[in-house]
Amino acid sequence: MHRRWLIPFAAMLLLWSLVGQINHYLAPHGISLFAGGLLVTFAALRLSLRPGLFATALAGLAVDALEPVTFGTHLILFAGLHVVLYHLRSRFPREETILAVVTALLANLALFLAVSFVTLGGHPAANSAWIRLFCDLGCSQVFVTAAAPWFFALQGHALAFAGVDLGEESRHPF
Amino acid sequence: MPSHRFDQAKPFAALGIVVLAWILLPVAVKSFLRSALYEVQAPIAVSASYARDLQDYWAERAQSKNDLLTAGRELRRIYSGYEFEAQQTEALRAEVARLEQLLRLPSNPQYRLEPARIARRDFSGWWQQLVIRKGANYGIPVGAPVVFGGGVVGRVREVHAYTAVVDLITSPTVRLAANLEGDARPVSYQGGINLPFFLSAARGVVEFVPPDVFASAKSPKRLVTSDLGGVFPAGLTIGWVTRLEASADGLFKGGEVALDPRLSELSEVTVLVPLNPT
Fold it and tell me: Is the pLDDT of residue B108 over 80?
């Protein structure tokens, strides 16, 4: 039972750490990557609601712990996005990698804009901030496109290795 | 049909329960959770930092002996210059202490210098922060000033078991009391202009500059820390004011501050730990 949320959560932590290290090297070049949408997508599309939402919520709290935002901001944003994707997932073939990548891109865009609107209050130069943010968003979307197939395969194989049947997960929605 | 509608609403009901549970959770539990989740992830950044240092060490070991001897000679030259300046600084310090005693003036705050390696840089468009490899284990307090050879780096925002998080002066969340070099009138500095790629080095914003002050890119004015803020020692370089124009109310001027481009490439900083905290 614990594997169903623990393994996706561990994979999310791994991805967030990797993105953090990439951002460390990109910092002198004025670029930063954001992959919040990619964190949420696999759990929302492939897992049943309870373990998926639990893993996503924990990932949101883990991200909040590292960042200078009110603790719970990413929890609510990630959980909200997870629920929306979960609600819509029956309308398209979610097992298809290409559609999952497109979903990750749209999810990442939505989360990026949401975090921007939450954090930019009181910014002394909001116009220049949006220039930087749009550049970061463009680079982030390129990264998500490249990394999404690998990340989905990682989670799928890790769950299969742990004996979790994703087909069975789909048949038990809650 | 009602059962189908309820199935459709289940995810949103679950979300509502999660949000409500989070709102009702006691603050102490939230603080504990935040601290615990941070400490679980801290070893990842710290280990990666040690791995980078090891990589740099082995890269330097591959240098030829001639290169190392040349570098050692240059360092000796620089060191002897600093040694002389350190002796002068000690003499000046003793003179200041004697004058403070004579005139019964309050002492300037004293600091312990704590150098720290940078474990991770987090420079997004929303905030700019560093994680350093020293924390409560070295007595780093929250709010301690952080500096480097070129001036001010930022301020310690969080302290954990063996790491600390520093807000950079390029971050829009950082506001400092400052004054222009040679002018005791206080002004306000705030970070936040971070353009992408190589468009420009990071810049900050200066406000409440007296209207009789002029600065431009050709004749910039150095912006230094003021002791009015109570955080930084007075006189540390923040940046250079390169543009000033009248504010909307006409009472003051505001403008841009060019910051040291080395801020985005730092690998080590120094934390000033107050010896006599107020």
Answer: no
Say whether A44 sits in a helix, a strand or coil: helix
The CA distances from residue B272 to A149, B146, B222, B249, in Å, are: 46, 6, 22, 38
Write down the pLDDT at residue B139: 93
Query: Rounded to an integer, what distance in angstroms lies between the CA atom of residue A126 and that of residue B58?
Result: 44
- In terms of Cα–Cα distance, which of A87, A41, A37 is closest to A63? A37
> How deeply is A76 buried, as exposed, middle or buried, from its count of CB atoms within 10 A (0-12, 13-18, 19+)?
buried
Q: Are A137 and A109 in contact (CB under 8 A)?
A: yes
Helix (H) or strand (E) holding B105: none
DSSP string, A119-140: H-TT-TTHHHHHHHHHHHHHHH
For the domain spanning A3-166, the CATH number is 1.10.1760
| Amino acid found at A111 | L
DSSP of B131-165, one letter per residue?
EES--GGGTPPTT-EEEETTEEEEEEEEE-SS-EE
Q: Which amino acid is at A2?
A: H
Token reading at A142: 């390129």
Interface residue B113 vs chain A (CB under 8 A): no
Say if CB A12 and CB A55 are below 8 A apart. Answer: yes
Quick check: B237 and B179 in contact, CB under 8 A? no
Residue B186 has pLDDT above 80, yes or no: yes
Q: Do B255 and B241 touch, CB atoms closer than 8 A?
A: yes
Q: By the 8 A CB rule, do B247 and B225 touch?
A: no
In 3D space, the residue among A135, A164, A76, A23 whose CA is nearest the CA of residue B199 turns out to be A135
pLDDT at residue B2 greater than cutoff 70: no
Rounded CA separation B206/B190 (Å)? 6
Chain A 48-77, residues with CB within 8 Å of chain B CB atoms: 49-50, 53, 57, 61-62, 64-68, 71-72, 75-76
Number of neighbouring beta carbons within 10 Å of residue B233 = 17
pLDDT averaged over every residue in chain B: 88
Domains of chain B (ranges plus CATH)? 13-61 (no CATH), 175-265 (2.40.10.350)
Residues A36-83 pLDDT 10s:
999 999 999 999 889 999 999 999 999 999 999 999 999 999 999 999
Cβ contacts of B191 on chain A, cutoff 8 Å: 124
